[in-house]
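Quick one, probably user error.
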């Protein structure tokens, strides 16, 4: 059973600024074999000891230090990592010091015809996107790790046709297509002529984590049985990646 910690950063930042308390409320939702823990916190006895930005990259300079599998392209007049299809990249950081939590924020661009939870083509499979977090590269094969999985859909949605997605929840939850997206942008390839062919999400996720090294993999698993050009049909890219470490007394 994997345990995920999702922290509302707006609440956290408010607590950090005040340095008075950390509000703590744990809600556990069990979905099949998964246990998802939402953690919003305040405890008058706890104090913030460390809040440090350890990685900040908008990819404008082309810097791919500490990234494996990185490729930079221009989308919407900005430099982003991508585009990926049934692929992804890994960030590996060393000597990050003592901490309790890792917080990750980024802009995620879902290009073209993502189908969410279902494609209506048997045997059906979702269009999933993942964050996988492990302690370090040496323990990669053996140490338990956290995986956050959700699905995204750029589908139209009406009474006749609607391919739903899981985001902002974890798979296999069902929500309307594009729920939680910050904006719609032109498509990249198969929907390049559509002004809403790309959905952009500003995502913030937190994980319980300790140790002096960190390995984070971002990747997708897409189901495209009828696609002639898979990468043109569906892909994703990422911008403005930031990673913070937080420690509480």
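Nope, works fine. Designed sequence:
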């Amino acid at each position: 059973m994997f345990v995920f910690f999702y922290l509302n950063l707006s609440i956290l930042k408010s607590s950090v600024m005040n340095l008075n308390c950390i509000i703590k409320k744990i809600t556990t939702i069990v979905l099949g074999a998964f246990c998802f823990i939402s953690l919003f916190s305040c405890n008058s006895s706890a104090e913030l000891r460390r809040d440090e930005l350890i990685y900040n990259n908008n990819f404008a300079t082309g810097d791919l230090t500490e990234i494996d599998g990185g490729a930079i392209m221009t989308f919407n007049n900005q430099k982003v990592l991508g585009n990926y299809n049934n692929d992804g990249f890994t960030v590996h950081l060393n000597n990050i010091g003592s901490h309790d939590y890792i917080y990750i924020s980024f802009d995620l661009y879902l290009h073209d015809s993502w189908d969410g939870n279902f494609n209506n083509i048997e045997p059906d499979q979702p269009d999933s996107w993942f964050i996988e977090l492990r302690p370090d590269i040496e323990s990669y094969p053996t140490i338990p790790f956290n995986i956050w999985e959700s699905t995204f859909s750029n589908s139209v949605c009406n009474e006749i046709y609607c391919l739903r997605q899981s985001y902002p929840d974890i798979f296999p939850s069902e929500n309307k297509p594009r729920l939680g997206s910050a904006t719609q942008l032109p498509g990249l390839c198969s929907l390049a002529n559509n002004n809403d062919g790309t959905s952009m999400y500003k995502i913030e996720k937190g994980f319980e984590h300790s140790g002096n090294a960190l390995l984070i993999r971002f990747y997708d698993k897409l189901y495209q049985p009828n696609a002639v050009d898979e990468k043109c049909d569906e892909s994703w890219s990422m911008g403005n990646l930031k990673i913070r470490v937080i420690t509480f007394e």
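The two ends are 28 Å apart (CA to CA).
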